[in-house]
Design a protein that fits this description.
206 residues, mainly beta, 6-stranded antiparallel sheet, 5-stranded antiparallel sheet, 2 helices, 9% helix, 39% strand, globular
Length: 206
């Protein structure tokens, strides 16, 4: 069976593999897991915040479809007993870009940690995944500081749009939240990483 490596810091990768319950069925000492187990892991329920105590919450800002803008409002929540530097974290918002000839733009409209400390980059997926051929990776500068124990980052207001404002089909966007309540809730589809290792959420399946 071919081995497929998960994103990891090596020791954490093995711990994540154990936490997902695949020990003895393809869990390797370097944190990699067997190909069939990778499929199981990618479709599992939320990676528990108990692994690190850090998770993402999101609330809907716009329920239109189609829409020329993908709005997303986030909070990074720290339920652990220790402060977590935001600069050690990245988030991924997974979506389908149906107009690749029209360049994408990321905007941070407002953030409690200050938008000067929030950056975004787009990564094209090859091959595409379910309801995603691109992801936006959001990262934080050192000036964003840390999320204190049992606190959150405060709101981070973001948008993705095309330069020429081509529409997105939001039903084909994996991370799109359609929830008229506008209340912050744990999100499974915006994934969170620490030092490159997945610590919260579920990536779209290949």
């Amino acid at each position: 069976m071919r081995n497929v490596s998960m994103p990891r810091a090596s020791v954490f990768g093995y711990g994540l593999c154990l936490a997902l319950g695949v020990l003895g069925t393809g869990c390797m000492a370097d944190g990699s897991i067997g190909e069939d187990q990778a499929s199981i892991a990618s479709q599992a329920a939320v990676v528990p915040a108990a692994l690190t105590g850090v998770k993402v919450q999101d609330r809907s800002h716009d329920n239109d479809n189609p829409d020329n803008t993908l709005y997303a409002l986030y909070e990074v929540v720290n339920t652990s007993a220790s402060a977590v530097p935001l600069s050690s974290l990245t988030m991924r918002y997974w979506f389908t870009n149906e107009s690749p000839s029209d360049p994408l733009e990321f905007d941070c409209d407002w953030a409690q940690v200050n938008c000067t400390n929030v950056s975004g980059r787009f990564v094209v997926l090859s091959p595409a995944r379910s309801n995603a051929n691109t992801y936006l990776e959001i990262s934080f500068g050192a000036g964003a500081g840390s999320v204190a124990a049992n606190q959150n980052s405060g709101e981070i207001q973001t948008r993705v749009h095309h330069v020429a404002w081509e529409n997105f089909n939001t039903t084909e966007t994996y991370s799109f939240i359609s929830d008229p309540s506008f209340v912050y809730k744990d999100t499974q589809t915006v994934t969170l990483y620490q030092a490159g290792a997945l610590i919260w959420g579920v990536e779209p399946t290949p």
